[in-house]
Design the sequence.
C-alpha cells in the first residue's frame, strides 16, 4: 500500500545529475549540490537515487555525443522498479538538451516525456513530480554568438512546449485523470526561474566556473548553461512548499 514518499529517484539531465554514482551520471554542473540533494536534506531522506545524465535528451540520445544512450528513454529502459516504488517520489525534468539549439521538435519531446511518465505510472509509481523547462534563453550563452540569434525562437518554443506539457498532465484529458492511482505534482520551473532572476545581481554572465561560492545572491549562473547551487536550493524549497 502506498503512503507518503520517503525517498527520491531523479530522471533527467544536468539540472538533476549529481555525479557518477552506482553506474549513473557524469558529474555536477554547478558549484555545489543540485536541487534533488537539497530536497532530500530538507525532508530528512537519504540522498537521491539519480538516474539523470548531463546532456541527456528526451529520447535515447545525448546532445554531446552521437551514441544513442543516456537519454530519458534510455534511462527508463535501464530502470527496474524497486519493491518500494509506491513510496518513492520519482521526478522527471528534461527537455533543455532537445531545444537549446532547436534540435528536436517540441512535439517529439512531449511524446517522449509522456511515454516515460505513462510507463512509470503503469509500473506502480504513486508519486510523480514533473518539472517543465526553464527558459534557457536567459542563460549567459545566449548573450553572445552563435546562440544570440536563436534566443527569441528558443524562448517561444519552450513556452509552447510548457503549455502543451501542462495540459497533457493537468488537463481534463491529462495524465492526472488517466492515472488516478498516482499523485501528480507539476512544477512550473519556467516561472520559478523568471522570479529567481530578480534575486540575483548578475544574471548575464557566469561565475568563474569554479566550485567556490561567491557572495550570496550575486551570480545566478555557474557557467554559460547551468545555475548556481543557490538556485538549486531555492528550487528545492519551492518544491518542498508546493508538493508537501
Sequence:
Amino acid at each position: 500500500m502506498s503512503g507518503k514518499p520517503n525517498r527520491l529517484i531523479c530522471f533527467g539531465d544536468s539540472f538533476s545529475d549529481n555525479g557518477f554514482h552506482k553506474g549513473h551520471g557524469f558529474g555536477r554542473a554547478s558549484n555545489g549540490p543540485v536541487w534533488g540533494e537539497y530536497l532530500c536534506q530538507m525532508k530528512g531522506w537519504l540522498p537521491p537515487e539519480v538516474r539523470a545524465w548531463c546532456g541527456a535528451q528526451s529520447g535515447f540520445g545525448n546532445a554531446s555525443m552521437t551514441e544513442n544512450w543516456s537519454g530519458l528513454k534510455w534511462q527508463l529502459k535501464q530502470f527496474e522498479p524497486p519493491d518500494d516504488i509506491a513510496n518513492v517520489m520519482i521526478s522527471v525534468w528534461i527537455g533543455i538538451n532537445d531545444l537549446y539549439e532547436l534540435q528536436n521538435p517540441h512535439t517529439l519531446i512531449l511524446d517522449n516525456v509522456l511515454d516515460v511518465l505513462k510507463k512509470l505510472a503503469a509500473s506502480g509509481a504513486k508519486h510523480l513530480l514533473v518539472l517543465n523547462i526553464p527558459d534557457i534563453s536567459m542563460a549567459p550563452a545566449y548573450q553572445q554568438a552563435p546562440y544570440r540569434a536563436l534566443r527569441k525562437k528558443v524562448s517561444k518554443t519552450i513556452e509552447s512546449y510548457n503549455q502543451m506539457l501542462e495540459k497533457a498532465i493537468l488537463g481534463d484529458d491529462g495524465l492526472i485523470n488517466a492515472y488516478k492511482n498516482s499523485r501528480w505534482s507539476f512544477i512550473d520551473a519556467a516561472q520559478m526561474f523568471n522570479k529567481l532572476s530578480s534575486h540575483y545581481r548578475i544574471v548575464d554572465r557566469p561565475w568563474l566556473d569554479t566550485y567556490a561560492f561567491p557572495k550570496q545572491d550575486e551570480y545566478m549562473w555557474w557557467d554559460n548553461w547551468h545555475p548556481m547551487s543557490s538556485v538549486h536550493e531555492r528550487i528545492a524549497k519551492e518544491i518542498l512548499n508546493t508538493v508537501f
User: Anything to note?
Assistant: The first strand starts at residue 7 and ends at 12. Residues 21 and 44 are 20 Å apart (CA to CA). Residues 7-243 form a domain with the Rossmann fold fold (CATH 3.40.50.1110).
